[in-house]
Amino acid sequence: MNTNKRLLIADDDDQIRELLVFDIQSSGYIADSASDGEIALKKALENNYDLILLDVMMPKINGYDVCKNIRMVKPKVPILMLTAKGSIQDKTEGFDCGADDYLVKPFEIQEVLLRIRALLRRNNEVQNETNEKEILRAGDIEILSDSLEAIVAQNKVKLTPTEFEILYCLMQHLNKPVSLATLLDEVWGYGSDEDVRMVRVHVGGLRQKIEEDSRNPKYLHTVTNVGYKLTPFGSLEED
Questions:
Q1: How much is the pLDDT for 54?
Q2: Which of 30, 127, 177, 216 could bridge to 223 as Cys pair (CB 3.0-4.6 Å)?
């Protein structure tokens, strides 16, 4: 049982929110809830949650703005967006706000629970790395696990938990192609054809932060029909 894990469920749909609370509590978690964005933000900032489930289309403050504000104060808490807004533009906006995962309504509760478990597992691994204050260096890139930051060519950038995990994974396979399936397995712990889009969106966000010109990457290269490769010494080779 997961009796020590506390989750916040924010959704203005009473039926969906109550169903999620019931199923999440039945799975052994402690569940708190919020019916609008203002309440969700207040609770998220005043309490320590292990994970937050966040609807987008909520009254008073929308989920994107709630997510942004949470990230400013609590950069490490996992955030899973549950929403009817399912276009690639919507997902990109959600990830840009700092969401770690994005599930479109209608959804199966077992899929929600799977993603909760995966995000909690990954966050525990990040916390373990943080406790060890691990620093990885290679070429122009250095990542600091205690602050979820990267230093690229002496410039410090703040990463989301997911961007940090992607960069960490690529750092473990320097100068070698890493497949999309491997990234899904090592970063999220699950994957499907639909989730490949999620990887690409997060990699795009990571590129925006670590590359001087994201359209002509110096470090994070696309390997056609495979995935991605990190060349931390600033190789300008074409893949």
A1: 95
A2: 177
